[in-house]
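# nightly structure sweep
# worker-07 picked up a monomer target from the shared queue
# config: single-sequence mode, recycle default, output format = structure tokens
# input follows
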Amino acid sequence: MQITTAVLPIAGLGTRFLPLSKVIPKEFFPLGLKPVIQHIIEEVLEAGVKKIIFVISPEKEKFLNNYFQEDKELLKLLRKRKKTSAIEALKSVPKIKYEYVFQRKPHGDGDAILKAEKLVGNKPFLVLFGDDLAYNENGPLMAKQLVESFSKVRKPLLCLYKKSKKELSSYGVPKIRDIRGKLAEISDIIEKPQANPPSNFALVGKYILTPDIFYYLKKEEPHNGEIGLAYALQDMIKDGKKVFGLQVEGKWLECGTMDKWIQTFTYMAAKHFIK
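# output follows
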């Protein structure tokens, strides 16, 4: 089954990046020769996505449109001045058709996904959060791996990545009921376990969700003022619905904190600039 829609929630406040995020959203921080958001767009395009839905705060609207919409006046000026390299740099930005909805208050990742319900419709869809990038020199990126495996399960499919026991206390960790090859049936999700994690997998911020997730998000009680996707998935499992995970290949590059972003920036800079 082909997945043609992707929801990209990028409405977060970016408090871990203050004061920088006061002037530029973290999704537009550079990584190599591109901002974070372009890496994510290229990943969903590789996966075959045709319909891109951003969930944004009102403050990010101008950044989104300025970056992805063609600036004809700027191109005209660059051609007049024969700035060939600058023109080529602008051409590297993917020409995409996209829609967006607002998440006006930071009420959690589940609330952000819920905001996109009307645009998503009644089909399975990808979700990629702005904190998690993928790199793979030898094969497809994580989103495409999810899409290629979804036809085997046709149920919510989560992205699993092996981490050390020490690291798992910072992530959502799935409890595994059954594992066959790279696919695992998930029986529970434990948020940031401080002891005895139920598996050695962390959940990456990349998912394929089915439309029934919206029902569970709507009935979810807020936790500390936020509606969490993980809690809605837990409720699905409790109701007897199957949820699966896929152990993905490649490298998980994180951008959720300043330290993680610097590590990813250094890694990408080495790939692009150091021969």
